[in-house]
Amino acid sequence: MKLIRKIIFTALILSLGFATTAIKVVNQVNNSEDLLKVLEKTPVTYCSIKDLARVLSTNVYENSEREKIVLYLGDHRVKISAGTSFILIDDAIYQIPAPAITAHNDIYLPSEAFFNILNNTVLPSTAYNSTDNSLIIMPTAFNIHAIQVEEKVNGTIIRIAAQKKFKKKEMSAFLHDNGWFYLTVQGGTVNADEVVKTDTRGIIKDVSVEELAGGVQLAFYLRSDIERHEFYQNKETDEIVVTLWAPLSKSVARIKEVKSQWEIDTIVLDAGHGGKDPGTIGHNGTKEKTVVLDIVKRVGSLLRKNTNVKVVYTRDEDVFIPLWERAKMANENNGKIFISVHANASRDRSAQGFETFLLRPGKTQDAIEVAALENAAIRYEENRADKYKDLTDEGQILATMAQSMFMKESESLAAQIQIELDKELSSPNRGVKQAGFYVLVGASMPNVLIEVGFLSNPTEEKQLRSAQYRQKIANGIYRALIEFKKSREFVMAEG
Predict the structure, then answer these.
(1) pTM for the model
(2) How many percent of the chain have pLDDT more than 90?
(3) What is the Cα–Cα distance from 157 to 452, expressed in whole angstroms?
(4) Are 46 and 109 in contact, with CB atoms under 8 Å apart?
(5) How many Å from the N-terminal Cα to the C-terminal Cα in the chain?
(6) Which end of the chain has a smaller Cβ tally under 10 Å, C or N?
(7) Which class does domain 2-137 fall in?
(8) Residue 374: pLDDT over 50
């Protein structure tokens, strides 16, 4: 079904009979011009993502099987998936007016909307002019920008975004006995405002910058000793990479500590609603609380049968558990993943499909309505005023999120769930979305909420009443958990 919808949409776009010319790229940095590939015969200009990576001289990751492309712009990631009108920049989700299109072994996006988003986020030095169909790349005042610190099991890596190729003799580094590590770059100009925003971690305690005659000096205050240091500039991305090696004895201890933190040994499964709270009820009397409990127990059974992971249920029978208590149970059991399973409802009985949500204020009316529907379960709770007084305004949820540091991992988990469910189900894939769910607030681990289908839709209600269909959902969620576990623990092993 998904493939058919994509083919129909693409065919419709390509048959509308409009003529589109390539985008003229004017690079004011090196005074060069180029052409950016576009789709032909489209009502609006669709630009090639692969060719954009070439024009910007940036790295790109492609997963042709999943029809997904990731652009690496400095220390930012721009994720694009075919067939969806959402793009992900780092942790933020942005919507474009029309879905991305797959064509010519590439992905194409509506140019004007896409470039406007980039200009307002990660590429302020670019400007798209729809009148003459041109993209302007303007010079910036700085050739050294943001700094990213990565903590590894055997040391710390400092990545410094740069827009100039420096000669080896123009860079030098040394460790002073005052505890500061200095990197000097002749010809470098630095964006101090970005540098002070550096998220310090590992052995990096503080970052400072000083402008020198003809260059700049970056200083890093270290929390502990280092064995040695290395630095180089990446020839492809111009990124300056500094590696600070921890002493061997500390590395061994750090490996054990990180392994304990990253190893996924406990998964918390939350079946929505329960007891006096039935959740949504289908036209034929199907109760959400019954459907999701069965799915959750099927997922748990697969995990217990095939892995050594500890499975924790927030409820394993038809009982009522307050929303705030569910995340609390996940934390108290040292959960490494928290998944809350629900079934959806809509005033539009034709609405159908599955979707996975991250905890963030909803950007669409549909997402806000879904959150309101699931959050309504608090009406069954006693003495609830104190528990939710800080969450009544959805805009305040981010300020109370204990798990904001897990947003990237939650996003990866959500994407994997959608991929695996898409393989199992014929229902529409509604993608990854964001909304303010009370049940996720406070879960200090990667966490998502899955809506497995619409009980308000007669077809999906019938499907969700089927044990075979619920097993398919469980299979998809199980495989997503396994794939996520493998990828996360692989990163840990790689260090």
Answers:
(1) 0.47
(2) 39
(3) 41
(4) yes
(5) 40
(6) N
(7) alpha beta
(8) no
